Amino acid sequence: MFVRSRATRQGRRAASSLQVQSRLARLKLSSHHSDIQPTPQHCGRTSTMEDTAMPDSSPPLFHELKFSIIPTSLEQDYVQELTQNIESRGGNVIPFDASKGRMNHLAEVTYIISTTTDFPDYYDALELLINVVKPKFIDDCLAANKVKNPRSYSPDTALFMSDVVVCVADLPEGDQDAIVGGVLAMGGQHAQGLSKAVTHLFALSMDDQRCRLAVDKRLALKIVLPHWFDDCLKVGRRLNERPYTLPDPEILNINAGTIRAPTLNANIVDAINPEPTNDPATPFAHLEDPRAIKAFSNKQVKIGEDLNINDRLRGIITDVIEAGGGLMTEDIDEADIYICNYRDGEDYIKASQKKIDVGNLSWLYYLITHNQWTNPMRRMLHYPRPRHGIPGFENFRISISSYTGEARVFIENLIKASGAEFTKTFRQDNTHLVAAHKNSEKCDAAADWGVNVVNHLWIEESYARCKMLPLTDTRYTHFPPRTNMGEVLGSTEIDRDAVERMFFPKNRKPQITKRDLQTEDQPEDTPEGVPASSAITKPGRRTKSGGAVATPVANRHSLGKENETPGTSGSRGAKDRALSKLHESAPDIAKFEKEMKRKGGVIHGGRRPKEVNHDRKDRDSGASKRSIDEVEDAGDGTTTEEDEATGPAQKGKKARKERLGPIDYRMTVTKDPRWMEHPEKQSKDMARMRELGVFIGDSHKNCNLLVAPRVVRTVKFVAAMASGPTLLSPEYLDHALKHGKLPPLDKYPMDTSEYEKENNINMADAIARAKQNKHRLLKDWTIFCTKNVSGGYDTFQTIIAANGGTCQAWTGRTTKPTATRRKIEALPDEVSQNLLEDEGDVLYLISENKRSEVGLWEKFRKLAEEHEMTPRIVTTEWLLSTAIAQKMMWKKEYELTEENVK
């Protein structure tokens, strides 16, 4: 689920190799006529008279297998030991040429032994279907006297459980299966019983027999709650076990105190700034070792023109490279290494298509300092940046919280490289807050202001894949309890395939113009369960010659095709055809973006009008109590070198920027086709509305204006209803954009008559109830929802959360509702009066009228009975009707039973 494509290819290759080796192992075992297995020392040789009379016909363990050992980070003695063990069991070791940093006769190799994927031949090895394994693979093969599954020994960081051997204590059977299956999928191993090989024991308490045995035997393993694995799976990284470790796990301690800062992260060492400010350090003497991969030996290096380095620095770099056995060149066709700042230009495209090493100045300094080769795509800021950032990020203003030291500098520079605006202080007009955890004042402010709070994986993976990824992927909004996400900072690698598609496809010629820099970004399929309204893609158009032509990216508040609830459908045909023509408008859009940076913006020629004529009587009385004043960085970390280096000129430039006026209204627009085929018009119109004091966004929390042609069942509309917004027709927008001022709110009301007639409901009363409820209609409710429900699980999770409830995915696993009986008496009278049809002890499961769902229902009924609640399995119609009406509604036709399954 989180394994990158190269890990997937390696997994398929490993499975094929495993089948071959398994057949060899069975052949070997079947040929023995003695009950005594040969020991590793004597395998393949005769030692007794019986052996002489009855020769062992089975091949040696590593018969016809060829290995190559990458000596980086391995002791020389251990390399010799591995070589001896392989050769004594029938294998061949192809020497590694340390002077060239490459493998001899790569195509002949069967297995590459390495502690990391960070060596020059790694991707070529994947293309040749060569297994890359850790040294432990050899040790375990010898111990078991059979060739093990190589996938469990991959050094690929995508298989983040590859060093883990788990044993599961007395947990429910469903939980055991889920944990074991997940660990195996992520490269780990499972042991039925305790042994010295086990690294993690999953248990709920120390009372378990296995836990007591592990303590008595003083086994070197970690006893952790199953929550650790769940959180690792949610973020796709191996997290620190400390908060989950028994007998006193921090996640269960409400008085655990502040979350501790992470230690120095090796993933970002010497890789926090794409443009280093100091001269390169000289190589360390202790790295002058024959087992090190020489960085510049027999290499020719070309320095790109976009670096703009002076003659003195160029001379220093030349001296160091030549001292390391390399040469400088001005001909890209002769170069083995190309150093540049941006992903454009003839030399960059030619070098990338030739598959020579392409990196930036920071990467070059790393090679000089360590005199050891590393993949420039391994660390994100070692690879040249996109000159115009990631499409869509130019509209973002991003701040950060709870990152300190080098981690803070790394995130700052990554935000800037993505094309977004980084703000040291957090304000109400920020679009995103990147946080290491949620225990901070900035995160509290973000919740009040409706600002997206994400972990750093969102910006890392968007940058790595050259596209803005949807925030509906819960990996980007999940914050494991008592965990500082800075511990896994920098663990994402640049996606080679995505960069190639975007910047140097095979059919693209090097001669390019600046407008050609943004090429086609092929959209991926929307992940299962993710609303289509949030799966933002940026399709391009392919020309007759096969070249890719970029299309401008829609504003982050894209109001195109939205999530369709059950019974609705839509077509992307018209939208795709329109998007294919947008490349013609690219110069105009660029001019508009340039004008937007002028003081006062495009509309008012230098200043905002002193008065805006609009009715303020209906302004949301429940607006944020926080002022628009800045939330400073107090408590977020230390002052960085960049902060200290900021002089009066830079501060004066910031002060001269025109600040937009306060936000009077927060508007959500849905099912209005005006922007569906015109993203460039959308950007302009939204900027004009912002000048009038109206912020158009997708957040439902503080929405006080909801624009739609009628009552529709999109996730935007239904979730926004919880805020009690004023319902307006699209004509309200027409008037505001045409006249440059906001009309009275009662002039263009939404036509709700059709919905009211069909559903016997008064929408004005629903809005009044929403204002009473204040997002508390489903407070203390736990509502379960199946993963494959029509419309997507995330859709209904958003609607339930907007009304104060908790949505839990139901897969049939044993679990516990976060809330059981609802305490209606604890709610204010104005809320409880809207819950008259709630029986207080009903547990709901949102499901589908499909046979594939029926198997989940009986287990759900047992869960409800265990918690003394009444199970009720319902259609999505129940939640949609309740959320729109803003009161508990129940009709018999909402309920699902086995008798009425299609």
UniProtKB/TrEMBL annotation:
Record Gene3D superfamilies: BRCT domain
Compositionally biased tracts (Acidic residues): 630-645
Database matches in CDD domains: BRCT, BRCT_BRC1_like_rpt2, BRCT_BRC1_like_rpt3
Compositionally biased residues, Basic and acidic residues: 573-598, 608-629
Region (Disordered): 31-57, 502-662
Origin superkingdom: Eukaryota
UniProt xrefs under InterPro entries: BRCT_dom, BRCT_dom_sf, CellCycle_DNARepair_Reg
Classification via SMART domains: BRCT
PANTHER family linked: REGULATOR OF TY1 TRANSPOSITION PROTEIN 107
Protein's name in the database: BRCT domain-containing protein
Native source organism of the sequence: Periconia digitata
Taxonomic lineage: Eukaryota, Fungi, Dikarya, Ascomycota, Pezizomycotina
